[in-house]
Amino acid sequence: MTDGTRDGDGTRCVRAGLPEPVPGQPFLPGPVLAAPYHLDPWRGPAAAADGYGRPDNPTRRLLEAAIGELEGGDCRVFASGQAAITGLLLALLRPGDAVVLPADGYFPVRAFAADTLARIGVRVHLAPTVGPYPSFEGVRLVLVETPANPGLDVVDVAALARDAHAAGALVAVDNTTATPLGQRPLDLGADLVVASGTKALTGHSDLLLGYVASRTPDLLDPVTAWRTVTGAVPGAFDAWLAHRSLATLDLRLARQSANAEALARLLADRSDVAGLRWPGLPGDPAYAVAAAQMRRLPGVLSFDLGGAERVARFLDASRLVGAATSFGGLHTTADRRAQWGDDTAPGFVRLSCGVEDTADLLADVTAALG
Ligand SMILES: *Cc1c(COP(=O)(O)O)cnc(C)c1O
């Protein structure tokens, strides 16, 4: 196959992880649905790549090759983002280790830390995405989320990695919101990437997926071993669906990001919308770092409509904005995070732009806000 390192994003997404062409075979081979595989009666599992479905699946390996190409590292996929994040933390942290986690990131990670990590004797420090960060002396791992979900703050990964590495700490970046087309944390100096593939990466709101990526076998090997013993693997059909969806990531993100920019400009001009955040908006607190660090901006924005009732009225009146959690899908959705027990204000909304026509979306949101 020709060297694809200079290809653009669209080309890389369309070709990512595909096997060499074989006449009579499809571009993307169908899902291999197998728990056990036939074994060689004489040589056993040594004779073939696949012996049992928990450690081995060829559909999963093609998806891992694809995501690995986009992230610039080796990849292991998991059954969900949470399976990947908790697997990473439990595979790398020992009792007595210290870990720094985002104070304003994905809420279930903090809940898991306060419960499970604290119970096994891991010392947990929380730091806001924009800092200040505690001293990294004696810290084993710093996990950051940038842009953070749901507040969309951004941290300079290269600067943070320099500080952390100087103190001997590892850095993992949750790349869910940005996707590997938005930023490549491993290029910026991170040791590990962890993400949910449930969101924009696959973008069709039809599956759960997570992954860990790294260039360091000493870090990825224990994560792989963890996945094999816990069985936190995605099914072959979900892995195949995810790979199929990855081909359009460039196209989807382009429209989602354009819609987010248009919507951010519209909402910025309204006096009845408070606390608007989108890292691509000049004047946003994250603008400068995002402009320097990110290759493209997410389709997600956040704002405050003042109360739960106004959010409900907005969603009820809108034709195109669906009430749903998660984000990054083809359909525009909005989520009032506080209804999930998150620590956000009652009127705080995370809105995820889909791939609808920009003019239709703007007209619908304008009408629904009244
Ligand atoms: C959704 C999300 C997760 C968890 O992913 P699941 O696939 O839902 O388990 C983790 N981190 C971030 C930033 C997320 O948005």
Automatic annotation (TrEMBL):
Q: Which GO terms describe its biological process?
A: cysteine biosynthetic process via cystathionine; transsulfuration
Q: Which residues carry this modification: N6-(pyridoxal phosphate)lysine?
A: 199
Keyword Lyase present in the record's keywords: the answer is: yes
Keywords in alphabetical order: Lyase, Pyridoxal phosphate
Q: Which cellular components does GO assign to this protein?
A: cytoplasm
Question: May I ask which residue range the UniProt record assigns to the signal sequence?
Answer: none
Q: Which GO terms describe its molecular function?
A: cystathionine gamma-lyase activity; pyridoxal phosphate binding
Q: Which cofactor does it need?
A: pyridoxal 5'-phosphate
Name the InterPro entries for this protein.
Cys/Met-Metab_PyrdxlP-dep_enz (IPR000277), PyrdxlP-dep_Trfase (IPR015424), PyrdxlP-dep_Trfase_major (IPR015421), PyrdxlP-dep_Trfase_small (IPR015422)
A Pfam family annotated for this UniProt entry: Cys_Met_Meta_PP
Q: Which Gene3D superfamilies match?
A: Aspartate Aminotransferase, domain 1, Type I PLP-dependent aspartate aminotransferase-like (Major domain)
What family classification does the UniProt entry report for this protein? Belongs to the trans-sulfuration enzymes family.
Q: What is this protein called?
A: Cystathionine gamma-lyase
